[in-house]
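chain below, 140 aa
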Amino acid sequence: MRPGTVFFHTRFPFRDTPEHGKKLCIVLNDGSIGHYVVVKTTSKQHRFSATYGCQPPPARFPAFYLPLHTNTFRKDTWVQLDDFFHFNNGEIIVGGLNGYIIQQFLLPKRFLREIIECALLSEDLPFSDEDVLKKALLVI
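prediction:
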């Protein structure tokens, strides 16, 4: 997968529950380090602002808002930047082959760049992912 790939995961592993669910996710790096840094999205506004772009700290839940009119997602969408996930390359391949990870589209580079820049402002970004995302910015 390439940075900016949006995929639908039908067995997304939520952190705080043993349950799995359906999520649209975005790949932020190229996987060359053995895993992909992935963020999930939501179309539910309940805890986010409806102002385009980066919603960094001090926002309680950092996010990046892409309104419907940006022609990226089919609904107003918030990229959730308060939780970052790692999927190793094998998980992505197996998920694709078994049909529970389904590539949808590639985000335009300008949106991907803005999302990564916003992610770098998140206090929830693991230190180990900071350099990964900075390097991803260099090749976008």
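The longest strand covers residues 5-13. The chain has one domain: 5-138.
thats it, cya
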